Amino acid sequence: MSITKSRLPQFLRFATNPSLSQKLMLIGLAITLSFILLAFLAPVLQGWGWLQDPTDSLINPIHEVPSAKYWFGTSRQGYDVFSRTIFGAQAALQVVLLATTLSMAIGVPLGMVSGYVGGKLDKVLLFLMDSIYTLPGLLLSVTLAFVVGRGILNAAIAISIAYVPQYYRVVRNHTVSVKTELFIEAAQAMGANTWQVLRKYLFFNVIQSVPVLFTLNAADAILVLGGLGFLGLGLPEETPEWGHDLKQALDALPTGIWWTALFPGLAMALMVVGLSLLGEGLNEFINPRLRK
After folding, report:
1. CA 21 to CA 172: how far, in whole Å?
2. Whether 243 contacts 189, CB under 8 Å
3. What is the pLDDT of residues 49-71, one digit of tens each?
4. How many domains does the chain have?
5. What's the domain range around 196?
């Protein structure tokens, strides 16, 4: 109840007189929601005939410049760049949502248990997570992608492992600081077991930074997915994906076919910027001290 009351004046100030960073957060939210809406409506628009099938090429494949018929032009393979860009957002959101959810589902419980139980379990998990954290995220994802293969779920698994230590470290540090509070000791004195303490008293007090981490990891995961697609390790080749399309566009750039690289690259950059702005704004909203 006290948390809700303390957030209310902050929310009213945000609604009536948002700061510059809060305005940027709203811009990030608008960009993110736009991509989500486009990804959700892509099959509907295709069914209405407003979008070409992104996996079908023209009868006589030849690159078309952007025009009223082909808004983003066509590639050398005859694919409609606009359609592949829109459906690429759908693939990116599916993989990113799965990857960040998997890493959060693993890292948060491990962090809570490790921080609360302590002892040898805490030391072993700390060593394991620190070992994973020292590896470059893209390199780790590329290595795992070789093992698990292509596909939406496989790409999400390959990407998610790199983010587990981040959730673990944040939640574990919060748990270590919160478990010494009086309300935790009171719950223990009343006979609450470890599971009850973790579920009823610790969980909602240690996950305040998780939404921020979720959005920032989602932004990074888009770049990692693009890297996997560029290397030919992400999704199947026929699946519209921004990184794969950028790889295909490399050969076309020297011949002046610039639009096949511009629009997928711009879409990827915009989505990363939107999620990053949203994450930074959430971080400031949750931690008011950052404004100073």
Report:
1. 29
2. no
3. 888 888 887 756 677 888 888 89
4. 1
5. 35-55+73-291
Q: Please check whether residue 195 lies inside any domain of the structure.
A: yes
Nearest Cα to 66, choosing from 46, 81, 83, 50? 81
Q: Could you tell me if residue 193 is left (phi over 0), alpha (psi between -120 and 50 degrees) or otherwise beta?
A: beta
Backbone angles phi, psi at 185, to 5 degrees: -65, -35
CATH number of the domain to which 135 belongs:
1.10.3720.10
Q: Does the residue 156 lie in any domain?
A: yes
pLDDT score of 7: 56
- The model's pTM: 0.88
Whether residue 125 lies inside any domain: the answer is yes
Round the CA-based radius of gyration of the chain to a whole number and report it.
23
Residues of the chain short of pLDDT 70, as ranges, are: 1-18, 59-61, 288-292
- Which residues have CB under 8 Å from 67's CB, separation 6+? 73
pLDDT tens-digit series, residues 163-215: 999 999 999 999 998 888 888 888 888 888 888 888 888 898 888 889 889 99
Residues 221-239 as b/e (b if ≥16 CB within 10 A, e otherwise) read bbbbbbbbbbeebbbeeeb
How many Cβ atoms are within 10 Å of 211's Cβ, its own excluded?
16
Decide: helix, strand or coil at residue 285.
helix
- Is there a domain that residue 10 lies in? no
